[in-house]
Design goal:
The chain is mostly helical. The chain has two domains: 52 residues, no CATH class; 133 residues. 73% of the residues lie in helices and 0% in strands. Helix 4 packs antiparallel against helix 5, helix 4 packs antiparallel against helix 6 and helix 4 packs across helix 7. The longest helix has 43 residues. It is flat and about 70 Å long.
């Protein structure tokens, strides 16, 4: 039975070069092409993704904006972030309380159910176990609300600056890795193609 790599060879025939390039799609440099149509052209050169480079520029601009703020703007920024954090945490708490309410209602229905046989009794036990392990613990969110209340607006500003600095380092490193991977993939394909001439 033919595979995706041998089908064309078995059905119509292929040259060694065509077969080799087709099989090369299962390896490092061309792995992203393994699900492409078998006649998709293998590029001579790979370009790095622009994602990390774009994010790096965005975060650098964000950090510059944060650093350019006056003290009043930093505090206003912190108040806005604190309000958003508080609203988000309260929404999560409300959502999880609603979910727990639905679990409680279903658990009562399952407990009241009389299974028709002993085999069905195992189903009832399983259903209750599933409900029990799905129950949301409110501890984290309640602790989070306390932490938000204790946090000063300037703390939110300081956290935003620190996060932007971490993001800059991360995206710079990831972009360098992406460039290196693209260069290595290009070299691999060029070496492969040269060996087939």
């Amino acid at each position: 039975m033919p595979t995706g790599y041998t089908a064309k060879l078995m059905e119509e025939g292929q040259t060694f070069q065509e077969f080799t390039l087709g099989c090369a799609r299962a390896f490092g440099a061309l792995i992203s092409m393994r699900d492409d149509p078998s006649d998709a052209q293998i590029p001579d050169e790979f370009a790095p993704s622009g994602y990390h480079e774009e994010r790096l520029a965005e975060v650098q601009e964000e950090l510059a904006g944060l650093r350019a703020m006056s003290l009043e703007e930093k505090i206003a920024f912190g108040h806005t972030e604190k309000d958003n954090d508080l609203a988000s945490t309260k929404n999560s708490l409300e959502r999880e309380l609603e979910q727990n309410g639905r679990i409680d209602e279903m658990a009562e229905q399952v407990k009241a159910w009389c299974p028709p046989t002993s085999e069905h009794q195992r189903l009832k036990i399983f259903m209750l176990q599933q409900l029990e392990i799905s129950y949301n613990s409110m501890k984290y969110l309640r602790d989070r609300l306390g932490a938000i209340a204790d946090k000063l607006p300037i703390d939110y500003y300081v956290s935003a600056v620190a996060q932007a600095e971490r993001d800059i380092t991360y995206h710079a490193e990831e972009h360098a890795k992406e460039v290196q991977r693209a260069n290595e993939r290009t070299a691999w394909v060029r070496q492969l193609k040269e060996s087939l001439q």
